[in-house]
Design brief:
By secondary structure, this protein is mostly helical. The protein has three helices and no strands. Helix 1 (about 5-25) runs antiparallel to helix 2 (about 30-50). The radius of gyration is 14 Å and the shape is elongated.
Length: about 70
């Protein structure tokens, strides 16, 4: 897997993931919305951690092309 997520994109994804998981655990939602929050939270945190996004690979997108220190 070649990294295709840049530092800014990674930070945004991590923030969204943390917010979604916090809303899931502390929000008290008891519906399909809570499952959506859980899935989105884990997806965002995992793509931020691995610096790789499968849809980006399929579409040829690379937001980390100009980042210094990226693993590309």
């Amino acid at each position: 897997m070649k990294a295709n997520i840049g530092n800014v994109d990674r930070g945004i994804r991590a923030s969204i993931g943390i917010i979604a998981l916090a809303a899931y655990f502390f929000g008290g939602f008891e519906s399909a919305f809570s499952i959506v929050l859980l899935v989105v939270g884990f997806a965002m945190l995992s793509t931020a951690a691995f610096r790789w996004c499968p849809p980006y690979s399929l579409l040829g997108i690379n937001t980390g092309a100009g980042d210094k220190g990226s693993n590309s």
